[in-house]
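User: structure tokens for this one?
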Amino acid sequence: MKITHTVIDERNLLKPHGRIDTLTSPELEGVLQPLLLQDKILITIDFKEVTYISSAGLRVLIKAAQKAKQGNTEVHLIHLNESVAQVLEITGFQSFFNIQ
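Assistant:
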């Protein structure tokens, strides 16, 4: 998986490409962790190029959302495809995020 990270006016935009699964979720977690240590920032994860997310990927997102709330940080998810949106809905995890 490839992850593009850009910063625009204190907004962190992450664009993962491919699958977020057991093998690739540690990479996403590695990019998110340093950002979550900052206070009062916005993290937007663009799912436009994500084709699949497993329970391991969901775990990374939930941990990020929980840590973000502790530090007054926000995690937004954008451009979810139908399968990723469905996984979040079925698990009830959509309530953890601002989804656009």
